[in-house]
Amino acid sequence: MADNLPSEFDVVVIGTGLPESIIAAACARSGQRVLHVDSRNYYGGNWASFSFSGLLSWIKENQQNTDIKDECEDWRKLILENEEVISLNKKDKTIQHVEAFCFGDQDAAEDVEEAGALARVPAFGTSVAEEVAEEPEKECSPLESSVPGAENWESDKATSTDPPNAAEGSVTEVNSENESSHSTASGESTLELGKSEAALSEVSAQEPKKITYSQIVREGRRFNIDLVSKLLYSRGLLIELLIKSNVSRYAEFKNATRILAFREGKVEQVPCSRADVFNSRQLAMVEKRMLMKFLTFCLEYEQHPDEYQDYKNSTFAQFLKTRKLTPSLQHFILHSIAMVSENDCNTLEGLQATRKFLQCLGRYGNTPFLFPLYGQGEIPQCFCRMCAVFGGIYCLRHSVQCLVVDKESGRQLSRAVLITDQSVLKTDSEQQVSILTVPPVDLGQPAVCVIELCSSTMTCMKDTYLVHLTCPSTKTAREDLEPVVQKLFSLNAETEKETKGEELEKPRVLWAVYFNMRDSSGIDRNSYSGLPSNVYVCSGPDSALGNDCAVKQAETVFQEMFPTEEFCPAPPNPEDIIYDEDEIASEETGFNNSPETKPESSLQESSSRGSTGVKEHTEE
Asked: Do residues 50 and 225 touch, judged by C-beta distance below 8 A?
């Protein structure tokens, strides 16, 4: 490791996934000396977000089956006779069955450039498994002394170099829309300009703009593609933690604007708030009253146990049939409000899920969900930044030689990420963040959660949409999800039209990647043999829509490590900071994260506790 690193730490955190990053921030905030390392050259692990060229590099890396070998094993000389080495498999096998395809229009360019990286345009409709070019490594030291995540606020994202600040004790919500302009030939009169713009607007309303693969690569920095697809419940544990710890100042959020349903082969918008219900044209007046009565019951169901006691052992779908609800209302409640499985969710779980949805309505918008601008990968980096502010030290591209190998687990998630040219449901305002649940066709098959992101979320280029599909695995990701993709989107090279005067066909897929990701949320200390008492285990992403599992896990691990410390308290106000001359002098001569972190890092207190390790789950 780097020579100028301190020789002792209170806590060593391995991996920069969401739970690990929260733990690192909490430990640094409580005054512990934290070293946070990751063998990857990016933050987030399986929670990360990538530019398009970065994702191509990730695809190629995860399609290689060879283990990473140690170039130098000098570290073995440091092992003492009374110490035991538990080796770690260098290859992360939590990602499997990665398949990428290009369906976008091709042009004459063979090589296109994006931020210094070259990517060869693959043949139309073929796998890009063998054709993606390896992205050059970033020229920087493995020891990251700057505040982590700062590179994600550079001008490539069309923002200021500093992270956006949210108001203290609140979450900033952004509902910006990208503006478009049309250029015209010089010398046109004002009248001609107006006619030209009107004509172009009429054409664009009828036919989506053609997007080529080379355009996607060239504007690859406009994409921030998540490995894990989640939304933040507005009253969920993660939002509450962001507010409590004031980490919310490092991020901005956009409200999910609509909840969709897929029924009888059509996508339609679901009324979920009181205003939506009464303004809906989909529901008859009788249905509106039925729905409002049932949703009111769900908010207060614990006060009326006699109405559901007899159905505790029934599924939520069976319970809904007893409530005199129409089939369309049953469908909306089950798949778009409770968002639970038709076959595996019991009545009590369904009522709890429905109440959670309703309780989150109205806090930041018309739906219960928020999405972080620039992708989910921003959230781990926000907590890493808090850790750095309080003196945590970060090392990327630094592999850890000694760790614990876990036992085999069988849960998998099937994931797909699509770049499309239109929204799955066209409306007057195309800048929408949508969530859609596609119910299973056959019994025993899982429902598929679809999250569609527009360009104003800063996750895709203008005139495109980023679509995430997720479900529990039954086969490979492509086998699980491609039937749903074919229902909602067109995979043809050219956008097909119906007869003249009718609407265009389904949105067209320009590019797609499928992969399976390990769901290790059930992994704990009991899954390991011979685990030292001061080593704790964090899991990767789970299949739930929110992030409660990661937050609960991080808080549990922290409280086990430091039971008398508060978990992620709010930082002090600058005027309340008392500087210690000895600590300031030692900082000036020793290791220092960055100039902007110096005042806050002086808040640390020395600790005599033994070193504590936190590691992320990797599959043997």
From this structure: yes
Shared-domain flag, residues 394 and 532:
yes
| Coil/strand/helix, residue 52 | helix
* End-to-end Cα separation, the chain, in angstroms: 25
Q: Which tokens hold the place of 509?
A: 């897929």
26 within domain boundaries: yes
Q: How far apart are CA 464 and CA 484, in angstroms?
A: 19
pTM above threshold 0.85: no
What is the chain's alpha carbon radius of gyration, rounded to the nearest angstrom?
26
Residue 120 lies in a domain: no
Chain centre to alpha carbon of residue 16: 14
The candidate with the shortest Cα–Cα distance to 439, out of 263, 247, 216, is: 263
- Give how far the C-alpha of residue 210 lies from the chain's centroid of Cα atoms, to the nearest Å: 28
Tokens describing residue 46? 């399986």
pLDDT digits (tens, 9 = 90+) for 493-534: 554 454 444 445 789 999 999 999 988 777 766 666 667 778
Q: What CATH number is associated with residue 222? A: 3.30.519.10
CATH number at residue 340: 1.10.405.10
Identify whether 101 is part of a domain.
Answer: no
How far is residue 605 from each of residues 71, 467, 580, 601, measured CA to CA in Å?
38, 46, 11, 10
Same domain? For 307 and 450 the reply is no
Q: Which domain holds residue 60?
A: 11-94+133-163+374-409+521-616
Q: Are residues 380 and 329 in the same domain?
A: no
Euclidean distance between CA atoms 391 and 385, whole angstroms: 10
487: burial class by Cβ within 10 Å (0-12, 13-18, 19+)?
A: middle
Residue-by-residue DSSP string for 357-422: HHHTTTSSSSSSEEEETT-TTHHHHHHHHHHHHTT-EEE-S---SB--PPPP---EEEEEEEEESS
Is residue 460 over pLDDT 80?
yes
